[in-house]
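Translate sequence into C-alpha cells.
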Amino acid sequence: MKDILWVSIGAVFGANLRYGIARLTGKIFQHPFPLGTLIINITGSFLLGIFFMWARQRMDLDLRWRLLIAVGFCGGYTTFSAYAWETLDLANQGNWGLAALNVAASNVLGLLAVFAGAYIGQKI
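Result follows.
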C-alpha cells in the first residue's frame, strides 16, 4: 500500500506539470502541431535518463525513489498516449506532413534526450 502512495504522489506532480506546460505552450504557440506534447515527451525522456543513470550508480537507492520519480512523476508527466492520439488526429485532418514530423521529432528527440539525460546522470 505504501508503494501506491509513492507512485501517486509523483503522478500528481507529474500530471499537473504536464497540464500546465501543455496549456502554456498552446497559448504561446497557436499552431496545429502538438508542440506541448513534444516538449513534455522530450523533457520527460531527459529526466528519466538522468534519474536511471544516476540511480544505477547508487545500488543502495531506496525503491521509493524509483516509485516516486520514474513510475509516478515521469509516468504522470510524459504523454505517449496523447502523442499517439494527436498524431492520428493530424493524419485524419489531412496534415500528413505534420503527423510524420510529430512521429520523427518525438522519437528522434526523445531518444536523444534520454541519451543526454543518461550521460548527465552518469556524471553527477
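Note: The chain has one domain: 2-123.
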